[in-house]
Amino acid sequence: MPRIMIVDDVTAIRQIVTKVFQDVGYQVTEAARGEEALDLAKIKRVHLVITDVEMPGMSGLELIKALRELKTYKTIPILILARDASDENIKKAAALGASGFIEKPFTPERLLSVVNQVLVDTYVN
After folding, report:
1. Considering only 21-25, 87-91, 101-105, which range has the smallest mean pLDDT?
2. pLDDT for 60-84, tens place per residue?
3. Tell me: the pLDDT tens digits for 103-125?
4. Residue 80 pairs with which residues in a beta bridge?
5. Cβ(51)–Cβ(78) under 8 Å?
6. Which of 78, 80, 114, 116 could bond 49 through an S-S bridge, CB–CB 3.0 to 4.6 Å?
7. Handedness of CA 103, 85, 32, 120 (dihedral sign)
8. Burial 112-122 (b: 16+ CB within 10 A, else e)
9. Residues 61/92, Cβ–Cβ less than 8 Å
10. Contact 97, 69 (CB under 8 A)
């Protein structure tokens, strides 16, 4: 089963997203900060990263840039989960290597739909 890393400084968001994925059998790794996620990524490979943008310390955009510099994360899908789905933020994230954007608030069904499609597109096609 695919392994997903959830990166968000809000504990409740991490818990909700983790539960959604664990309930359907995904393995989930959580990180509260970008720096923690980067450290975990160096020792534990995942199939997908979902990150918030606005976090203390390393932002989600900075995390994407840092992950894309790692050989094992050059092609791993990275989704942004954030409140501000403005064209500017989407373009910035895409330029850094984000695979997609999920706007908060989200429904579990929407979250699963996007993630399942990204994983199929990446690992099956």
Report:
1. 87-91
2. 999 999 999 999 999 999 999 988 7
3. 888 999 999 999 999 988 887 76
4. 51, 101
5. yes
6. 78
7. positive
8. bebbeebbeee
9. yes
10. no
* pLDDT digits 0-9 by tens, 23-58: 999 999 999 999 999 999 999 999 999 999 989 999
Q: Which amino acid is at 42?
A: K
Q: What is the torsional sign of CA 86, 88, 91, 97?
A: negative
pLDDT for the residue numbered 20: 96
Radius of gyration, alpha carbons of the chain? 13
Distance CA 55, CA 83 (A): 12
Q: What is the DSSP letter of 104?
A: S
What distance in Å separates the CA atoms of residue 100 and residue 51, rounded to the nearest whole number? Answer: 11
Residue listed under structure tokens 């500017």: 88
In three-state form (DSSP H/G/I as H, E/B as E, the rest C), the secondary structure along 1-70 is: CCEEEEECCCHHHHHHHHHHHHCCCCEEEEECCHHHHHHHHHHCCCCEEEECCCCCCCCHHHHHHHHHCC
